[in-house]
Automatic annotation (TrEMBL), chain A:
The keyword Iron-sulfur is assigned to this record: no
Pfam families: MlaD (PF02470)
InterPro entries for the chain: Mce/MlaD, PqiA-PqiB_transport
Protein name, entry field: MlaD family protein
PANTHER family assigned to the protein according to its UniProt record, in alphabetical order: INTERMEMBRANE TRANSPORT PROTEIN PQIB-RELATED, INTERMEMBRANE TRANSPORT PROTEIN YEBT
Domain Mce/MlaD intervals: 42-133, 157-215, 279-363, 385-447, 626-716, 747-799
Domain of life: Bacteria
Subcellular location per the Swiss-Prot or TrEMBL entry: Cell inner membrane
Keywords, in A-Z order: Cell inner membrane, Cell membrane, Membrane, Transmembrane, Transmembrane helix
Species this protein is from: Shewanella electrica
Primary location class: membrane
Automatic annotation (TrEMBL), chain B:
Superkingdom, taxonomy of origin: Bacteria
Location relative to the cell: Cell inner membrane
Coiled-coil ranges from the UniProt annotation: none
Taxonomic source organism: Shewanella electrica
Descriptive protein name: Paraquat-inducible protein A
Record carries keyword Lyase: no
InterPro entries assigned: PqiA-like (IPR007498), PqiA-PqiB_transport (IPR051800)
Annotated keywords: Cell inner membrane, Cell membrane, Membrane, Transmembrane, Transmembrane helix
High-level lineage: Bacteria, Pseudomonadati, Pseudomonadota, Gammaproteobacteria, Alteromonadales
Transmembrane segments: 50-68, 97-122, 143-161, 173-190
Keyword Membrane recorded: yes
């Protein structure tokens, strides 16, 4: 078998096998890796930190948006020893992030109430955060103290919020949309106008929710409205309670917001959504506070946002809720309304706690920016009659008190205030339109107390009003004379019907002026005539120049006739006891007069000398007494009230006695009966002190025993009048003229005393003026005086003997001999004198007489004709 | 003529199929049994082996320079090269393991590349070396080379098992790829080489000697 050899196939040997591509590829790969590793070798950056705490070499990484971009390769202390230089090696790709404003900071795990920040750092350890900035390239930086606000990602929407205060907002506070957190507050700062400017970040997927007309408001904390109507708690989320938050709402028809658009951050949702806002002006805030509701048909449609003092009152900022903004028209009227609490009806009790509300009637026309705030609801059907009532004191009228006529409510009190000059109280009232005509000239108003208690001796009467008025009180209208009121007439308002009556009487009263230097009565005291009240003391004034009180009396008109020239006035004494030996007269004033004091009016039969003088007492008044003064010896026991008598008839009285400055005399203010003043106040009239004298011969001035000493007066003959007299002591006549003075000597004084009488045949002819122990001490010298007209009875032959006492000599055989002068001398003592013969021509009266203890019998038988 | 025992197929006109081992006539281009291409000597294998060896040598550089694993521990990322890993084991007083890893990861690849290089050089540059030594060495290289995959095996296990996110995570780093390629290419280089060339050369040398 032949096989034809095949033509050999010449295969050209390849110079290089394709397998050599492999090392080339490997080389290329290696080279690429090498070049890459050189390229990616990292960038050295030095960051200066205040402290290296929490930074570890080769452990602490640098992160940007969660990506490791480098790590710490070295830490060294800086040259100033003020911190550390941390050398970082950053990924080569981070090279373009390193600019002038690039920031580095240390992220450490931080747990706050709202969240844990840097939680990853708990596991990875602290790391250095990095935020790229703008500017030129640089590789050394100063570390930030705190992590800067990082806008989480470029994708979201950044909004700027302007607020007046930060509240509890903080970086990280959530931004809510319908209570879904859609973003965060990333930073805040004060702008140049000292507003807070916050930067918020809304996540990308929610960015479209923010519209150009969105409203942002603060939802920090909890808003609790607690009232009787219930408790309303507004809050977004627990986190926002604690950390604050911002919520927003957006109208549908609005364009999407631009980045970094500026919004106002409102304090609350109401404010944010608030519609029309306007100003109410009022005199006072009166129960209005921030948050007070503005209600319409009892539905809250707005609230008070701000209260502010203005020059003449209070400005109240009100913001209406958006849907209700249109309610307010140009003629809207606003008024406050609180809880109406009465025993008959309680309306809106929740306002007791929540405070007043502002109500309004919508009005028409274009809305204004400012409205007055009325204190009560305007009358909707016809204008009420506005009246000003006046009273001296607030009669107890309260705002809101009803005004009634025949117990039908016709109006109410709208205000109580002081008049501009503080002279009176003005009570503003409004009378409803249908009742306008009830108020006429002469009408007055009387406050009806809730409970009226009249207690008198007749019994106690308690009158109550209907319960509805217990709290506010009620005011009754009393119609007037029917004549229409003038434009700006004011009517009186009274505390009570009595006061009204009184006032009416006062209006018709007569005024009578009195003056008195010593007697003051209180205003309001009654004036009596025959114990019947006829008027009152209207006023008392002290007139310094005249040194007297000016008292004005208001006498009721009906007693006009009592005021005439015969009228006399004296203070009503509670109890007058006119006691004398003639009997005791006890006069009791009316009971009210006892308590309040008062003035009595009396009428004389003839014209009174002075019918404007208030006498000190009735008796003075009745006598038309004329005042004068007496000077009394200092030892006279004269007292106020002592009589001045003329021949036993009382013609005057002593009102006051006081010791003179020189202690030598007493000065007495005295009154003399007006009728006798002319005769008794003559310059030579004599005034003497009279005292009671008791003797067996009779009782002299017996009344003086009861009343004390009195003054007796002897009319003078001169025509000149005096108003001051010196009073002589009581006069026994012995001292008058030129009495004989002689001395008696005796071994001892016995019962002799000053004033002891000297008797001649039982007739008083003299008295003992004084006595003293002789210088030698062995006897007593008694100075006696003998009345002038009896001096001829005494001559050298006169013998003096003691009449005092009773001498009883009793013996068994002689019997009993009783010697006694007279009974009078037994009581008072006395000195007897007997004279033997008439005086011879040349005879001198001896210097001294001996006072014998008892008369010799012959002395008693002497009976010369002298 | 040489004794039969030392006869070569080439000399006898018999080519051995290197796929199925059937002895074919030298005129046959394709194996009767398996239809593989029949060549008396694959001279190109020398060149391929060289190329693969050089590739492996090149890749050995990044395999050692670059980190072979990226370990994230508590968020802290560490890169480990082969050598730093061994050092870490040494520092951790795990010397036996360190020796094993050192042998498998560094010694073996290097030895293999050097050894192969030596053999290829011996073939290419006809360096006279004892046949027995060569054969023994070659077997050792072939046998031990597979153990170099130990490192990669550990890495792949670690990557699969240690996967706890930021807390603890292991990731292969670029050097792992390079290292795997080194092992692959050295294996290929050893496998590709037509060892008969070695014997031819040695025989000649023996003849010459």
């Amino acid at each position: 078998m032949m096989t034809t050899p095949e033509q050999p196939k010449v295969v050209r040997k390849k110079l290089f096998s394709p397998v050599w591509l492999l090392p080339i590829i490997a080389l290329a790969l290696g080279a690429w890796l090498g070049i890459k590793s050189i390229r990616e070798s990292g960038i050295d950056v030095r960051v200066h930190f205040p402290s290296a705490t929490g930074i570890d070499v080769s452990k602490t990484l640098v992160r940007y948006k969660g990506l490791n971009v480098g790590k710490v390769v070295d830490i060294s202390i800086d040259d100033q020893l003020k911190g550390v230089n941390v050398d970082l090696v950053l990924d080569y790709r981070a090279g373009n992030l390193l600019k002038d404003s690039t920031k580095f900071w240390l992220v450490t795990p931080k747990a706050t109430i709202t969240g844990v920040e840097g939680l990853d750092a708990l596991f990875s350890g602290n790391y250095i955060g990095m935020l790229p900035g703008d500017g030129d390239y640089r590789d050394h930086f100063e570390a930030e103290r705190e992590s800067p606000a990082i806008v989480p990602s470029e994708d979201g929407l950044v909004v700027e919020l302007k607020a007046d205060k930060l509240g509890s907002l903080d970086v990280g506070s959530p931004i809510f949309y319908r209570q879904i957190p859609v973003g965060n507050i990333v930073s805040y700062h004060l702008d140049e106008k000292h507003h807070i400017q916050l930067k918020g970040f809304v996540q990308h997927q929610y960015a479209h929710l923010v519209k150009q007309d969105s409203r942002f408001w603060n939802v920090s904390g909890v808003r609790v409205d607690a009232s009787l109507a219930g408790i309303k708690v507004d809050t977004e989320s627990i986190a926002s309670i604690l950390a604050g938050g911002v919520s927003f709402s957006s109208p549908d028809a609005s364009k999407e917001a631009e980045s970094e658009q500026l919004y106002q951050l409102y304090n609350n949702e109401k404010e944010a959504h608030g519609g029309a806002s306007f100003l109410l002006t009022a005199k006072s805030a009166d129960g209005i506070k921030i948050g007070t509701d503005v209600v319409f048909r009892d539905l809250p449609v707005g609230e008070v946002e701000e209260l502010r003092l203005t020059e003449d009152g209070v400005a109240i900022h009100v913001r209406m809720d958006t849907p209700y903004s249109e309610l307010i028209g140009g003629t809207a009227e606003f008024w406050t309304e609180g809880a109406q609490l009465s025993l008959s009806k309680i309306s809106h009790p929740e306002r007791l706690i929540s405070g007043n509300v502002i109500r309004f009637s919508p009005g028409t026309g274009a809305a204004q920016t400012e409205y007055p705030l009325l204190s009560s609801a305007p009358e909707l059907d016809g204008n009420p009659l506005k009246l000003t009532l006046h009273a001296d004191n607030n009669p107890g009228a309260a705002v809101g008190a009803e005004i009634r006529y025949r117990n039908v409510t016709i109006g109410q009190v709208t205000g109580v205030n002081l008049a501009k000059d503080f002279s009176q109280v003005n009570v503003e009232v409004e009378i409803e339109a249908p009742f306008k005509n009830l108020v006429t000239q002469g009408s007055d108003f009387i406050v009806q107390p809730p409970v009226q208690v009249n207690a008198s001796l007749d019994g106690i009467e308690i009158k109550g009003t209907d319960v509805g008025n217990l709290t506010k009180g009620r005011i009754d209208l009393r119609p007037g004379n029917g004549a229409a009121l003038t434009a700006d007439a004011t009517l009186p308002i009274y505390e009570s019907a009595e006061q009204a009556q009184l006032a009416q009487q006062q209006a018709q009263q007569l005024t009578w002026q009195l003056y008195s230097s010593s007697v003051a009565v209180n205003p309001g005291s009654d004036v009596y005539y025959k114990k019947m009240k006829i008027g009152q003391v209207a006023g008392v004034k002290w007139q310094a120049e005249q040194d007297q009180f000016a008292i004005s009396l208001a006498i009721e008109h009906t007693y006009q006739s009592l005021l005439n020239e015969r009228s006399i006035f004296w203070p009503t004494e509670a109890l007058t006891i006119d006691g004398g030996l003639g009997g005791v007269n006890v006069a009791v004033a009316p009971l009210s007069g006892i308590l309040k004091g008062g003035i009595s009016l009396g009428l004389l039969d003839e014209s009174a000398s002075d019918n404007h003088l208030l006498y000190a007492s009735k008796s003075l008044a009745e006598r038309q007494s004329v005042p004068f003064t007496l000077q009394l010896p200092v030892n006279s026991a004269m007292k106020a009230g002592a009589d001045i008598r003329y021949l036993g008839n009382s013609v005057g009285t002593i009102a006051q006695v006081h010791l003179a400055d020189d202690l030598q005399s007493l000065r007495a203010s005295a009154y003399i009966d007006g009728r006798f003043a002319d005769q008794l106040l003559r310059s030579d009239s004599q005034y003497r002190i009279e005292d009671a004298e008791l003797s067996l011969r009779g009782v002299k001035n017996a009344t003086a025993v009861l009343t004390g000493p009195f003054i007796s007066v002897t009319p003078g003959k001169q025509t000149t009048r005096a108003d001051s007299f010196a009073v002589q002591a009581a006069d026994d006549g012995i001292d008058n003229g030129n009495p004989l003075q002689l001395s008696l000597v005796r071994a001892e004084l016995g019962s002799i005393k000053q004033g002891t009488g000297i008797f001649y045949r039982g007739i008083l002819i003299g008295k003992v003026a004084q006595y003293q122990l002789a210088d030698s001490g062995d006897h007593v010298v008694i100075n006696a005086i003998i009345a002038e007209r009896y001096r001829h009875l005494i001559n050298a032959s006169s013998r003096f003997f003691d009449l005092s006492g009773i001498k009883v000599d009793a013996g068994i055989f002689s019997g009993v001999q009783i010697d006694a002068g007279s009974v009078e001398t037994i009581l008072t003592g006395g000195i007897g004198v007997a004279t033997e013969h008439p005086a011879t021509a040349a005879e001198q009266l001896p210097q001294q007489f001996e006072l014998a203890d008892k008369p010799e019998e012959k002395w008693l038988s002497w009976s010369p004709t002298l | 003529m040489k004794p039969a025992t030392k006869a070569r197929g080439l000399d006898l006109g018999i080519y051995r199929c290197h796929v199925c081992g059937l002895l074919n006539d030298q005129h046959e281009q394709y194996c009767d049994r398996c239809h593989a291409k029949i060549t008396p000597r694959d001279y190109r294998s020398l060149q391929s082996s060289w190329a693969l060896l050089i590739t492996a040598a090149i890749l050995l550089v990044p395999a050692n320079i670059y980190p072979i694993t990226t370990l994230v521990k508590s968020g802290n990322v560490t890169h480990e090269t082969i050598f730093s890993g061994i050092l870490r084991l040494v520092h951790a007083d795990l010397l036996p393991i360190a020796i094993i890893v050192f042998t498998a990861s560094i010694l073996v690849p290097w030895l293999k590349i050097l050894g192969l290089g030596f053999y290829l050089s011996a073939i290419t540059f006809k360096i006279p070396i004892s046949k027995r030594k060569l054969t023994t060495g070659f077997h050792i290289i072939e046998w031990i080379g597979r153990w170099s995959m130990l490192d990669l095996f550990v890495i792949s296990l670690s990557v699969a098992l240690v996967n706890m996110g930021q807390l603890l995570d292991a990731q292969p780093a670029p050097a792992a790829t390079a290292f795997a390629l080194v092992i692959l290419f050295t294996q290929l280089a050893a496998k590709t080489l037509d060892t008969r060339l070695l014997w031819d050369q040695l025989d000649k040398n023996d003849d010459n000697s």
